[in-house]
Design goal:
about 45% helix; alpha/beta; six-stranded mixed β-sheet; single chain; Rossmann fold; 3 domains; electron transfer activity; 4Fe4S_Fe-S-bd; 4 iron, 4 sulfur cluster binding; four-stranded antiparallel β-sheet; cell membrane; iron-sulfur
């Protein structure tokens, strides 16, 4: 099959596509002058999205200076193609700006103010591209921002990423639409660079045959390309018949190979890939010079332009600036009218500020007499001329009716999306019906409905997935609860079967252990207290009546000693309690000396007054009690003997000092001193005898 096709092509024999028309070419207006360069505009408006796919993210900031060729957007999406700075300058703003679409809607645009320096980024050419992996080359082409430049704007790297076997690589140089000559001049002047781009494509795709198609009304371009390809027999130049729209992708494939692309399918589905000659030139620029796609050749033509020509226009150049540089003749138009594209597939722009983009191949400015405004739309007369002219074999009349009545399902059944919007049907319509416009509107509405349906479908899927997830989580919780209940029941069953062997480490076991420890500690404290009480009772039982009397006498002596000391220190400060505490401790130490003597022993043979002796005894007891209290507060130490422990357990004696108004009689004192008080007084007296002897002289003087 492949060899038969090649043999037929070499004989100059081709297939035909249905329909088609032959409008006036008008190419001679602009194809006789070489491609020129025009002055830069004051501002360049660079749309973020200039291709079929998704827009990238802006990677520059306002007031940032950028260099020529610097990347302005980036994205990881495979259908995103970056845009680059066409010249060096400053980013003025990132704003919504009128686009180059038929509707003229606003799109996100980067506004660049040139500085006139044309300062490039560091370029990195890949002259030795054949040594690079296929994937690396495709990435370089994507990074250069190359999209199809024949009109559709499909990302070039997507076509090159196909893993299918390619029979034919077709290079489209037909340029069938009237007025447009940009590809014609590019092939005449840069045939060799186009050849270099094709070499790169062949290295990536490995096609079995390369076909370069040129319409037979471009003999100069055919001759230039023939010279460029003469050394490679695998490259076949094909001079196809001049007929509109022979340059359409599906129509050109049918003409060259006789194959038809399936409805809603792609050429790669039948082993064919097609690229425009402008795309090949851009690929060569990117690989061999390292330059991204920042400019393209645009045809400036029409009888309302004084100097029709082809020019290199930077991406983002306002169309108004371009036609002014080509000397716009305002007198030839009653109202300024600029068409982007040719007369068949182009559309009238809404503003002079619409920028040139990667898919812009022509700016047509016709005179009013050259291309009159379409007349009033008349009713369809069902002549069938539109069906005869349709190159896709559709029924334009029925499609128009269904589109007008919003019957989109029926329009889709009639293969509305196979329409290439070539305009042949509208060109031959005697009723001036804007058929292409109704098809474009219907396609746009169908795409919107499909997008909404897709979003609804995805939302439904997410909703159902969420419900399924919640149900699964609920089941998991219920299963976990069942497992926990079963485990608890199993533990309870084990406890019932082994009541005497509780599980170690449970909370109840810990509480029981704590209670046992508390009870043991309490019992130990009670035992110690009982032992101390028994020891004190033994000490008390060991004391004789004379010892008890000695304690009382010592207490009285100590009280009188304290009174004497207080009289001597009347001028001392009240804040010095250490003196009385020291005296009390000293009295206690003296009272514990092992040489007790009778405090009632008179000095130098003086007689003893019984009444005074009794008062002295009471005073000594009072002094002893107060001294004991001070001792406890000043020296809180543990008793060192059983006697000390017994003393600590004795209640404090509270007796009146002798000489006070409330001094008690012998009977009152004896009634108040209990048995334990007597024991304590006797112990104190025995320990304080020595101190009482030392103070006896002073006591005698006080009593006299």
């Amino acid at each position: 099959m492949l060899t038969d096709i090649i043999a037929k092509i070499k004989k100059g024999q081709f297939w035909q596509f249905p329909g088609g028309v032959n409008p006036p070419g008008k190419k001679s207006l602009s194809n006789e002058q070489e491609i020129e360069r025009l002055p830069l505009a004051d501002k360049l408006y660079i749309p973020v999205k200039q291709h079929v796919g998704v827009a990238g993210r802006v990677s520059v900031e306002i007031n940032q200076r950028v260099l020529k060729g610097q990347q302005l957007t980036h994205s990881m999406n495979p259908f995103a193609v970056p845009v680059h700075a066409p010249t060096s300058g400053t980013i003025v703003s990132v704003e919504d700006h009128v686009s180059n679409s038929p509707s003229g809607i606003e799109e996100k645009t980067i506004v660049l103010q040139p500085d006139g320096q044309e300062e490039w980024i560091d370029l990195k050419p890949l002259s030795d591209y054949q040594s690079l992996p296929r994937v690396s080359l495709v990435e370089e082409i994507c990074s250069a921002g190359i999209a199809g430049m024949g009109g559709a704007g499909f990302p070039a790297h997507i076509k090159l990423s196909s893993g299918k076997n390619i029979e034919f690589l077709i290079i489209n140089g037909v340029e069938c639409e009237p007025y447009i000559t940009s590809d014609d001049r590019l092939m005449r002047e840069h045939a060799w660079q186009i050849r270099q781009g094709i070499d790169v494509l062949c290295h990536i795709l490995k096609p079995q045959q390369v076909l370069i198609a040129i319409e037979d009304n471009k003999p100069e371009a055919f001759a230039a390309m023939e010279i460029a390809f003469q050394d490679n027999s695998n490259y076949l130049l094909c001079a196809v018949e001049t007929k509109y729209p022979a340059g359409g992708e599906k129509q050109l494939i049918q003409v060259l190979t006789g194959k038809e692309v399936p409805s809603r399918g792609l050429p790669v589905d039948i082993g064919i890939i097609m690229h425009n000659v402008g795309t090949c030139f851009a690929i060569a620029d990117a690989v061999f010079s390292g330059k991204p796609l920042i400019e393209r050749v645009v045809t400036l033509t029409g009888e309302a332009i004084e100097r029709p020509q082809n020019a290199w226009l930077p991406i983002g150049t306002p169309v108004g600036h371009a036609i002014e540089q080509a000397s716009y003749i305002s007198e030839k138009q009653a109202q300024r009218r600029i068409i982007m594209g040719g007369p068949m597939m182009g559309y009238t722009l809404h503003s002079d500020l619409v920028p040139v983009v990667k898919t812009t191949n022509c700016l047509l400015v016709p005179a009013d007499t050259e291309m009159p405004t379409p007349g009033e739309e008349l009713p369809c007369i069902r002549c069938g001329a539109c069906a005869d002219a349709c190159p896709a074999g559709l029924l334009p009349q029925q499609l128009h009716w269904h589109a007008q009545s919003k019957e989109f399902d029926k329009a889709k059944e009639l293969n509305l999306f196979d329409c290439i919007e070539c305009g042949a049907c509208a060109f031959v319509c005697p009723s001036n019906i804007p058929l292409v416009h109704s098809y474009r509107s219907a396609k746009a509405e169908i795409r919107i409905q499909e997008d909404e349906a897709l979003k609804a479908s995805k939302a439904k899927e997410r909703f159902e997935a969420r419900n399924a997830r919640l149900e699964k989580e609920k089941q998991e919780r219920e299963e976990k609860a069942r497992q926990s209940a079963a485990a608890r029941a199993e533990r309870q069953k084990k406890k019932e079967n082994q009541p005497d062997k509780p599980e170690a480490g449970t909370a109840n076991d810990r509480v029981a252990a704590a209670l046992a420890r508390a009870k043991a500690k309490k019992a130990q404290q009670q035992t110690e207290t009982a032992s101390q009480q028994n020891e004190a009772a033994d000490v008390q039982s060991s004391l004789t009546p004379s010892d008890q009397q000695d304690r009382v006498a010592a207490a009285i002596a100590r009280a009188k000693a304290k009174k004497a000391q207080q009289a001597q220190a009347t001028n001392a400060e009240d804040e010095q309690p250490s003196t009385s505490q020291t005296d009390a401790v000293k009295d206690t130490a003296d009272a514990r000396s092992p040489e007790p003597k009778d405090v009632t022993e008179p000095k130098d043979g003086a007689e003893v007054n019984p009444e005074e002796d009794k008062k002295a005894r009471v005073a000594a007891a009072i002094a002893r009690a107060k001294a004991k209290k001070l001792q406890n507060s000043a020296a809180s130490s543990t008793p060192s003997s059983a006697s000390d422990k017994a003393e600590e357990q004795q209640p404090e004696l509270v007796l009146e000092e002798p000489g006070s108004d409330n001094t008690a009689s012998d009977e009152t004192v004896k009634a108040e001193i209990s048995k334990q008080d007597k024991i304590a007084a006797a112990i104190a007296r025995a320990k304080a005898k020595k101190a009482a002897r030392a103070q006896s002289d002073n006591n005698t003087d006080d009593e006299n």
